[in-house]
## 1
Amino acid sequence: MLTTTVIILISLCLFVFWFRYACRLMLSVHPAKDLTGKIAEANKLKFRTVQSALNSESMLAFSELDRLFQLLNRDHRIITYLMKYGACYRCGGEGLEHALLQLDYRLMMAIYKLTRTTFRGEAHKALCEMARVLNYFANSMGANMSGDTIQVALPE
């Protein structure tokens, strides 16, 4: 019984390590052509503004972090909608990568919610990674589109 528990714990630790490494590796790749600006502008997405605010040297207040979190979640809803229903995007074949990064986004949401009041530095890192995931999705959408721009208006 003890051996089985140890093997399961070690396997779980290795899986978490692999998952975090795979997500960071995917997010660290710099595309040949960056199309995030075009997608963000066409759909009024704010994740690039959030990235700029998070990259500033000043430590942000709790209320400001919460506002940035809300902006990222709004952008996530829009990007998810576009990826699900956009005719030009559905032809892309990054299923596993997108599933892993969607899971990573949700994990970072949970980490943000758990750490936002106590560990502001960790909450800041979680928001940074959430913005990077949205940046990856937007660039992936732009790469899969054939020159036309998809816009969406979601109910607020």
## 2
Amino acid sequence: MRITGSISLACLLYAFVAPGPARALEYYPLVAAVVRPEKASVGSRLEYVLRVSGERLDDIEIVPPDAREFIPPPRMGPGAAPPASAAVPLYVIQSVERKEESHERKRSVSLIMGIVYYRAGRHPLPAIEIRGADGIEIGYKIPEVQIEARNPAGEFQEIEPPLELGGNYYRMLALAAVMGLLAAGGYLLFRRQEGRRTKAAIPATPETPPLDEFLASMQAIRLRIRTQEVDAGEYVLEASRLFRVYLSRLIGINGMEMTSLELAASLEGRLGEAARSRLGDDFDRVTGLWDIAKFAEFAPSASSLGENLELAMELGRRIAREARRAGL
């Protein structure tokens, strides 16, 4: 009996003192990854979130993918020329953000990536490297996303008038233009008569504000889309050029030779991080379609072009408000 009691006591003490698997796992980090949404179309922006949580995260290293643009090697036989689609990236990582949170003893580190896929199919998300204090890589289940093509046939579709005013909108523009010309003519005549008496010079006509010029040009493109006088390639080149000219005049940059990512960085530099955050998703949606429409296998529909044009015009108005708020 004494021997049995001693053994039981020794086992009990060992359970409290010895570092068993349960105590070792107590400090092992938990890793979870999700993508939102899990099903999207070509060119849509996704949010890829990796979360590492635990008690001891000081020595945990989280490394995002090196390549912001990934083009997989083409599959072809010896001597064959690569297909045109080989130039289309599988995905482009548009943004990477790191966030840390803590609650009592628990901590978490999240890596949030904005990513756009440009090829249809089911694809795994890019792997994110995680290493513990011992340098050993920590594995996790990599999520997958289903990407569907946008209008694979590239056919034009009927679209509704984007403005509630319909045809009255253009009559109002024409009436406003006529009234403006009459007012300008009366003003010049008045100044000329005044000049004869006072010998004062007639002031020069003021320059058209950047926003007014941009909106007027985009409205002209809208008419050409409705009458199918412009295809997707022509629209993308013209809309992208007008948008870059507008930003160059408004905030004082040379946007004609910039990529979309460089334009976004210039906006943040001139207007501030908060303004860039407010403009973020719409800016990426507008420029994202222009970027992918340059590839031969992606042909957006007339409906997509119309939606993009309306969003670009609204984005131009919001950027003008942010510029006034920043004192530009």
